Amino acid sequence: MDGGNQSIVSEFVLLGLGHSWDFQVLLFMIFLTLYLIIVTGNIVIMTLIITDPHLHSPMYFFLANLSFVDMWLSSNTTPKMISDFLRENKTISFAGCMSQIFFSHFIAGLEMVILVVMAYDRYVAICKPLHYSTVMSLHRCMWLVVAAWTVGFVHAMSQIVVIVQLPFCGPREIDSFFCDRPLVINLACMDSHKLKVLMNVDCGVVAITCFILLLISYTHILITVCQNSKTGASKALSTCTAHITVVVLFFGPCIFIYVWPLNITWMDKFLAVFYSVFTPLLNPAIYTLRNKEMKNAIKRFRSYYMDFKRNN
C-alpha cells in the first residue's frame, strides 16, 4: 500500500448466484417480487408511523428509522443483483464496487446501533416507567438517532479509506452477487492476511459491543418483570419477542459475513442473500404481525381510506 492507489482495474466481474439461464430467470422473478415486497412493506410501516397519532412515541419513531434503514440495506445490493440475472456480462465499476462496500458497512453499523437504541427504549419503558417520558424525550431520541448515523458513517469510513487504496492489478472476478469486502480484499496484489484480520477486528468491535449492550438490556428487562409479576416472564417475552427476533436475524448473518467469515462459498452466498433480502423482508412482517398497535393502525388507515373513497 506504500504507493497509494495503484489500481489498474476499472471494473470487477460478479459471478452471481448461478450460471443456467433458466435458473437465472427464475431467480429474477423471485427476487424482484421479494424486493418489491420489502420496499412496499417498509414504506407502509413508515407511512403509518408518520400519519397515525397513536404511533407518535419513541418506540415507533425508532421503528420508522429501522424500516428506512432496512429498505436502504436491501437497495444497496438487490437491484444490481436482480438486473444482473438477465445479463451475460455481470460487471461493476471500481467506483460502484467501493460504493457497495461503503454503504454495506454504513448500513450495518447504523442498524446495529438502532437496535441497541430500541432495546434501551424498552429497558427504560419496562424497568423505569415513571421516568420514561423524561428519559426518552424527543430531543434525546433525535440525538440517539444522530449517534447511530454517526457510528455507521465512522465505521464505514474506517473500512473504505483502506480498501480504496489497495493495489488491484490482476484478477477481477468476485464469486458473489455484490462486492463483498473479504472477497474484494482477496483480489489485491499484496499479502492481505494481516489487513483482513484488522478489518475483522474493526467490525468485531462494533458488532460485539452492540451485541453485549443488547444482552444487558434484555436481561435487565426479563429480570425486572419477572420480579414484579408472577406472569412476568410471559409478559416480558410478549413485549420483546419481536425485538429479539429481529436482533437474531440481523446479527447472525452479519457476524459470519464481516466478523468471522466462514470462507465457504455457498454458505457465504446464502448468508449474504439472507442478510440483504430476507432480513429486510421479515422485519416488517415481524413488527406488524406481533404488534397490536401496528395492527390497529392498519385497520384505522384502511377505514380512513374506505371512507375517503366513498365520499369521493
TrEMBL record:
Taxonomic superkingdom: Eukaryota
Membrane topology: Multi-pass membrane protein
CDD domains in the cross-refs: 7tmA_OR4-like
Chain ranges of the G-protein coupled receptors family 1 profile domain: 41-287
Regions that span the bilayer: 25-50, 93-120, 141-168, 204-225, 237-260, 272-290
Keywords: Cell membrane, Disulfide bond, G-protein coupled receptor, Membrane, Olfaction, Receptor, Sensory transduction, Transducer, Transmembrane, Transmembrane helix
Cell location: Cell membrane; Membrane
InterPro entries: GPCR_Rhodpsn, GPCR_Rhodpsn_7TM, Olfact_rcpt, Olfactory_Receptors
Molecular function (Gene Ontology), one example: G protein-coupled receptor activity
Any one GO cellular component localisation term in the record: plasma membrane
Gene3D superfamilies: Rhodopsin 7-helix transmembrane proteins
Protein family: Belongs to the G-protein coupled receptor 1 family.
Official protein name in the record: Olfactory receptor
Lineage summary: Eukaryota, Metazoa, Chordata, Craniata, Vertebrata
